[in-house]
Amino acid sequence: TDTFQSPDYYLVDELLTGEQKLIREVVRNYVKKEITPIIEDYAQRAEFPQQIVQQMGELGCFGPTIPVEYGGGGLDYISYGLMMQELERGDSGVRSTASVQGSLVMFPIYQYGSEAQRNKYLPRLANGEWLGCFGLTEPDFGSDPSGMLTSFTDAGDHVILNGAKMWISNAPYAAIAVVWAKNEQGEIQGLIVERGMQGFSTPTTHNKWSLRASATGELVFDHVKVPKENILPNVKGLKGPLGCLTKARYGIAWGALGAAMDCYDTALQYSKERIQFDRPIAGFQLQQKKLAEMITEITKAQLLVWRLGALMNEGKATPQQVSMAKRNNCEIAITIAREARQMLGGTGITGEYSIMRHLMNLESVITYEGTHDIHLLITGMDVTGINAFK
Ligand code: TGC
Ligand code: FAD
Fold first, then answer.
1. Which of 233, 219, 251, 250 is nearest to 108 (CA)?
2. Which residues form the Acyl-CoA dehydrogenase/oxidase C-terminal domain (predicted)?
């Protein structure tokens, strides 16, 4: 484990409980054993490592904050964050799979679902028997999901769903999809659509240069008959999906930090070993500037998510605070990945090291769950009281 320590310049470990450190260690060891050795090949081949679904289920990475009675971990938010950090130290796509399953599929079923829905779906999502996906984005409505066209009409004991979702993580392998669609009154509601329902298909999205080890697809609904018992009964309006996004964005803030840590660790070690002009490149001031800036930004980001996690645990974190951490940590991670890549010279562009894969992955991470621009405007609205969207 010695070569795989977190950078921890401000002794943030002292702020963690024994249980939180143990959880981090378990996930870190899993990533070292099962993810790091295989992920580069899967990413190069643009293939989803399906075995990780069951593995992460067994490990408790799906729905760690969901109560134990529904198969969740019953853990606190800092434990959840640390899990995401360690998964994304391995690969952003692996963390994506866990984020979607826990925060975007299990959370809405737990928070907005009926008791029957909770009992039917949550235990099997928690243990990885079923993979889920979350359909909000559409071809013509990404940053502004309120305009969505996907809709359903009443047909007695069921509804008829029509429309399409795009850019959906996990879609090609998902057993169920939590889909956001408008009812006949134009109100947004959540429906659980199951694979095998007639008229429901999940075409794969090809040719991505980013998140290549994560499967992305569309959700197409052509007069799909969905039983009314599959509608999430306890929420209406955009606050339903946005509430899920708050949980997932929180996990991404920690996850992006994990990717940044891996890039920093790699660049630091490489720079001490790589000799040019008869000395390690780590001895050059320009390389030290890069490393000094990286560790400074990582340290600030660690403190940001630790404090945010404490606020989440107390139920006091606002969606706007989550937004700031998501944006900041994605931004510092992608900057660190770019600088770290340069420090490895030509070697840095190959799959021999993880950095180029992280850098390409982070282009998705800084875009999904609200783009960098959208999160800037959320903060702008919060501090000025003026809505720049409308
Ligand atoms: P607006 O009028 O501001 O809000 C509508 C209602 O929602 C409430 N709300 C929130 N609730 C919880 N959490 C949040 N983050 C919330 N933001 C807003 C709000 O209070 C209001 O409630 P109520 O009771 O008054 O009805 O809505 P708007 O239409 O103006 O939109 C605001 C905007 C632009 C910030 C929002 O649309 C937005 O965040 N857009 C970005 C879209 C986005 O993030 N899409 C992500 C798709 S999923 C994904 O990318 C998964 S990738 C996963 C992976 O692979 O890891
Ligand atoms: P657009 O909204 O068209 O934005 C284009 C550009 O315009 C961006 O730079 C944006 O910042 C800017 N812009 C937009 N509005 C404004 C404004 N008001 N002011 C200033 N600038 C603005 N979605 C899901 O529902 N489920 C998933 O599982 C999922 N997984 C994804 C996986 C991957 C790999 C990717 C790439 C995306 C995924 N998404 C998912 C979709 C993702 O959430 C959207 O791509 C994202 O919300 C942006 O929407 P868009 O791509 O339509 O871009």
1. 233
2. 237-381
Pairing of strands 216-227, 158-169: antiparallel
Rg (CA), the chain: 21
ipTM of the complex: 0.98
Which residue of 104, 167, 216, 247 sits with most ligand 2 atoms within 8 Å of its CB, as the best mutation to test the pocket?
Answer: 167
Q: Which atom of ligand 1 is nearest to the CA of 136?
A: 47
Ligand 2, atom 39, lies closest to the CA of: 167
End-to-end CA distance of the chain: 51
Measuring from each residue's beta carbon to the nearest atom of ligand 2, which residues come in under 6 Å?
A: 100, 133-137, 142-143, 167-169, 211, 216, 364, 367-369, 371, 373-374, 377, 389
Q: Which of 260, 209, 167 is nearest to 44 (CA)?
A: 209
Report the candidate in 263, 172, 182 with the shortest Cα–Cα distance to residue 220. Answer: 172
Q: How far apart are CA 122 and CA 68, in angstroms?
A: 10
Under DSSP, is residue 316 helix (H, G, I), strand (E, B) or coil? coil
Taking only the tens place, the pLDDT of each residue in 4-15 is 478 999 999 999
